Amino acid sequence: MKIIFVLGTRPEAIKLVPVIKEFAKHKKYKLKVCFTGQHQEMVLPIFEFFNIKIDKNLKLMRNDQTLSAITGRLFTNLGVYLAAQKPDLVFVQGDTNTARVAATVAFYLKIKIAHIEAGLRTFDIMSPFPEEYNRVVISKIASYHFAPTKMAEKNLLTEGIKKDSILVTGNTGIDTLLLTLKKYKTIVDHSKNNWGKNGRNIILITCHRRENFGKGLINICKAIKELSFTYKNIDFVFPVHLNPNVQKTVHQELQNLSNVFLINPLNYLEFVSLMAKSYIILTDSGGIQEEAPSLKKPILILRETTERQEAVENELAILIGNSTENIITNTKKLIEDKTFYSKMIQNKNPFGEGNASIMIFNKIENTLS
């Protein structure tokens, strides 16, 4: 049986790693990994780190590309590739353009589609953009819906997806996180860096979503700047996404501040280590909302909506948007109110226990073999 995993971004790579590894244990499956190249510099180290071979690299990324342009290239190139390969099943993950186009092409070719991380919804088609649109489309055509939570399952059922095609598994990103922590007992030593020395707390910031480009990202940077002036004893570490829209704004607004460290994107192990060392995390990332609770780190979500509402409902995260005032107020409260901080890190992670990949394999093995 031939299975193709299609991915384009770093989060997809991280969350597909444990699934690929699980299927690779069983020789009856002929596996291929197709990488579209959306995050070229950020994905290849992930697969090298986990010793996974990429069979096809489409290298579709272009500078300053529009959504229409990358979507067109994805349709053309994935159409040719999947038609030639004729797999029995295509795996896609999440809500990227790569995932939507790969699923659509597979649908056109009448190939079964397995969707990992299915059912996440904000119910606002423009937020996040274009991810909400992408995942809704995939749900309409997938044969297998691997939902990370009961809430995601409920969303799918509400949309008329058949219950027997849905399996609640937890999130595969937690599988990868726990696998990494188990494999590397001694986490990466950041003592060679200039941040976090002599017991100084670290606030970790990540930001990459399109809805924060422009004014939103400027507001975020203004908040970080003011917080860095107020809390000189805290280090603010910002791995800056490679997207030029992020690079230009962040470096213009935050360079040359003594306790703000603008660094290149880290490899996966280094980033997990930095999360583990951090005191607070400010992020617009979906994956970090899932991972941070396992590391007992409070999250301030730099978005107006979240499809991972479980983190908010379990008081593990606060949805604060990109208002400068909101960011400053909520960060200050976490720094200064120790009781409030402790409350935010005490609940169990609702996104899984590290066995999602095995559950996904068993579902496919029992229904498709």
How would you summarize the topology of this molecule?
Elements: E1 2-7, H1 10-24, E2 30-35, H2 40-49, E3 56-57, H3 67-85, E4 89-93, H4 97-108, E5 112-116, H5 131-141, E6 144-147, H6 150-158, E7 166-168, H7 172-183, E8 202-206, H8 215-230, E9 235-239, H9 244-254, E10 260-263, H10 268-277, E11 280-283, H11 286-291, E12 299-301, H12 309-313, E13 317-319, H13 324-336, H14 338-344, H15 356-367
Parallel strand pairs: 1-2, 1-4, 2-3, 4-5, 5-6, 6-7, 8-9, 8-11, 9-10, 11-12, 12-13
Notes on the protein architecture:
The chain is of the alpha/beta class. The chain folds into two domains: 2-170 and 354-367, Glycogen Phosphorylase B (Rossmann fold); 197-344, Glycogen Phosphorylase B (Rossmann fold), CATH 3.40.50. The chain contains 15 helices and 13 strands. The chain has helices at 10-24, 40-49, 67-85, 97-108, 131-141, 150-158, 172-183, 215-230, 244-254, 268-277, 286-291, 309-313, 324-336, 338-344, 356-367; strands spanning 2-7, 30-35, 56-57, 89-93, 112-116, 144-147, 166-168, 202-206, 235-239, 260-263, 280-283, 299-301, 317-319. The strands form two sheets. It has a seven-stranded parallel sheet with strand order 3-2-1-4-5-6-7, sandwiched between helices. Strands 10-9-8-11-12-13 form a six-stranded parallel sheet, sandwiched between helices. Helix 1 (10-24) links the parallel strand 1 (2-7) and strand 2 (30-35). Helix 1 (10-24) packs parallel to helix 2 (40-49) and helix 1 (10-24) crosses helix 7 (172-183). The longest helix has 19 residues, at 67-85. The chain starts with a strand and ends with a helix. The mean pLDDT is 93.
